[in-house]
Design a protein that fits this description.
The complex is a heterodimer of chains A (116) and B (111). Chain A has strands at 5-7, 10-13, 19-24, 31-37, 44-50, 53-56, 65-68, 75-79, 88-95, 106-107, 111-115. With 116 residues, chain A is mainly β. In chain A, the strands form two sheets. In chain A, strands 2, 4, 5, 6, 9, 10 and 11 form a seven-stranded mixed β-sheet that branches. The N and C termini of chain A lie far apart (37 Å). The model of chain A has no long low-confidence stretch (mean pLDDT 91). Chain B is mostly beta strands and 111 residues long. In chain B, strands 2, 4, 5, 9, 10 and 11 form a six-stranded mixed β-sheet that branches. In chain B, strand 9 and strand 10 (98-101) form a beta hairpin. Chain B starts with a strand and ends with a strand. Classes of the chains: A mainly beta (116), B mainly beta (111). Chain A binds chain B through residues 4, 31, 40-45, 48, 55-56, 91, 93, 95, 97, 101-110, 112, and chain B through 4, 31-32, 34, 36, 41-46, 49, 51, 89, 91, 93, 95-99, 101-104.
Chain lengths: 116, 111
């Protein structure tokens, strides 16, 4: 079974530029998550999708961050414009969510973003 | 708001030692608790998952315990090996399938 795929693995941009990250979840997984992990901290949930609908985006800085999952499979996370404090690893995870809240989340390798 | 704390932040032990990592959480209304391993430049790998009704789970040299009422969990690693060097994260699952992570313990096992 292929794992969660993310690209790019690394990205360096200057502040005020835009950047987009891509995630392909495990085949058949209905739920997709984006997390932000700042150096020295644990991951923090940014947004959760169930199929192509948003379940929770309460911690997404909506003035600059946006995410979509148009066909209920792949997802993109965009930052526009980027700030220095956005430097972090952006992790994508997916789970099958059969309805019992016990489904393990499987994580991709992450995209390391550096904002200069 | 759920807060998860891990102690110590970093730990260095000689190969072969047994060790304990600690995790505490503020809100006991959780569905489960998971321990993850994170290697540099890699994603997270789930090690153990303890349901809220369980008190411990074991996998090989790893044993995790959960005391939900006191908001504590421990991860016990027996006979540590250099390959165990990584950052260990605990996370609690709350409603809507949201995982709240601790800040992690960075473990170094010295050969």
């Amino acid at each position: 079974e292929a794992g969660v795929a993310q690209s790019p693995r690394y990205k360096i941009i200057e502040k005020r530029q835009s950047v987009a990250f891509w995630c392909n979840p495990i085949s058949g997984h209905a739920t997709l998550y984006w997390y932000q992990q700042i150096l020295g901290q644990g991951p923090k949930l940014l947004i959760q999708f169930q199929n192509n609908g948003v379940v929770d985006d309460s911690q997404l800085p909506k003035d600059r961050f946006s995410a979509e999952r148009l066909k209920g499979v792949d997802s993109t996370l965009k930052i526009q414009p980027a700030k220095l404090e956005d430097s972090a690893v952006y992790l994508c995870a997916s789970s099958s969510l059969r309805g019992d809240l016990t489904d393990t989340q499987y994580f991709g390798p992450g995209t390391r973003l550096t904002v200069l | 708001k759920q807060e998860v704390t891990q102690i110590p932040a970093a730990l260095s032990v000689p190969e072969g030692e047994n060790l304990v990592l600690n995790c505490s959480f503020t809100d006991s209304a959780i569905y489960n608790l998971q321990w993850f391993r994170q290697d540099p430049g890699k994603g997270l790998t789930s090690l153990l998952l303890i349901q809220s009704s369980q008190r411990e789970q074991t996998s090989g040299r790893l044993n995790a315990s959960l005391d939900k009422s006191s908001g504590r969990s421990t991860l016990y690693i027996a006979a540590s090996q250099p390959g165990d060097s990584a950052t260990y994260l605990c996370a609690v699952l709350t409603g809507a399938n949201n995982l709240f992570f601790g800040t992690g313990t960075r473990l170094t096992v010295i050969p």
